[in-house]
Amino acid sequence: MNYTATRIQLIRKILCERFPFTFAGKGQPKKPLAIGIGEDLLLSLPEFGPLYIGKALSDYTSGLTYLREVTEGADRIDLRGQVSGVVTADEAKHAASRAAGIEHARMKEKPRAQVDAESAETVAC
Q1: What angle do CA 76, 82, 86 make, to 5 degrees?
Q2: Domain range holding 103?
Q3: Looking at residue 124, what is its pLDDT?
Q4: Residue 31 maps to which CATH number?
Q5: What pTM does this model have?
C-alpha cells in the first residue's frame, strides 16, 4: 500500500473513532453525509488538510455500501449524527448510476478472474 492509500485509511479510521454516529467502517451500513461535511471536517481535523480529507471522503462515499443508501428522501447526517438535509431525486439518481457502473465493472472482471484461476490450475500441473 502506498503512502496516500495508507494515509486515507488512517483518516477513515480516525473518522470512525471521532465521529461514530456519522462514519462507519468498511462493509458496515452507512448513512448519506450532509452536504458540505468536508468543510466541517477540515475545521475538526486541520492536521490532515483539504487534499487528504477530500480523498478520504471520496473513498468513503464511492463504495457500493454508501451509494446504495443514497436514496431519494433519505436523511443526510452531520458530524454529530444529526439530520442535516435529505437526499434529492437528482442525488439519488446520480448515486444509483455510480453504483450501477461499479457493479457492471465488477461483473466484467469476474469472468476474467475465473479464466485466470482456471489457467493457473492448468499451468500448475
Answers
A1: 25
A2: 3-123
A3: 39
A4: 1.10.1710.10
A5: 0.82
